[in-house]
């Protein structure tokens, strides 16, 4: 997980969390593959928690881990049942 992320984006997310009532945020996936007709990908990807001011559970690492969970062998194999779905994947925001 060494690829850098846009610092402004991470700061925006951290500021949004700070503006709420909780110091933690659970990051979950949302892709265009989760509810394709004939395929239920709900629960296929991993979720991670970030805690503000905790260097072991940063926002950046949580986002990266969720993003990477799209390409676990389990996820790839499950989606591969529909063959071309892996080529058309994208994140939903």
> How many strands?
2
Give a short account of the largest sheet: 2 strands, antiparallel
Taking the alpha carbons of the first and last residues, their distance comes to: 21 Å
Low-confidence stretches: none
Order of helices and strands: HEEHH
Percent helix, as a range, is 25-40%
Structural class per helix/strand content? alpha+beta
Report the principal-axis shape: elongated
Beta-strand share of residues: 5-15%
| Overall average pLDDT | 85
- How are the strands ordered across the major sheet? 1-2
Count of individual helical segments:
3
Radius of gyration: 15 Å
What does this structure look like?
The protein has helices at residues 7-18, 59-68, 73-79; strands at 24-27, 48-51. Helix content is 31%, strand content 9%. The model has no long low-confidence stretch (mean pLDDT 85). With 93 residues, it is an alpha+beta fold. It starts with 6 loop residues before the first helix and ends in a 14-residue tail after the last helix. The longest helix has 12 residues, at 7-18. It has a two-stranded antiparallel sheet. The protein has 3 helices and 2 strands; from the N terminus they run H-E-E-H-H.
């Amino acid at each position: 997980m060494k690829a850098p992320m846009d610092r402004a984006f991470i700061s925006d997310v951290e500021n949004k969390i700070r503006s709420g009532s909780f110091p933690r945020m659970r990051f979950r996936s949302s892709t265009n593959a989760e509810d394709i007709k004939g395929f239920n990908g709900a629960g296929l990807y991993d979720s991670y928690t970030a805690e503000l001011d905790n260097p072991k559970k940063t926002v950046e690492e949580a986002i990266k881990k969720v993003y990477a969970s799209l390409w676990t062998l389990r996820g790839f194999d499950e989606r591969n049942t529909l063959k071309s779905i892996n080529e058309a994947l994208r994140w939903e925001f």
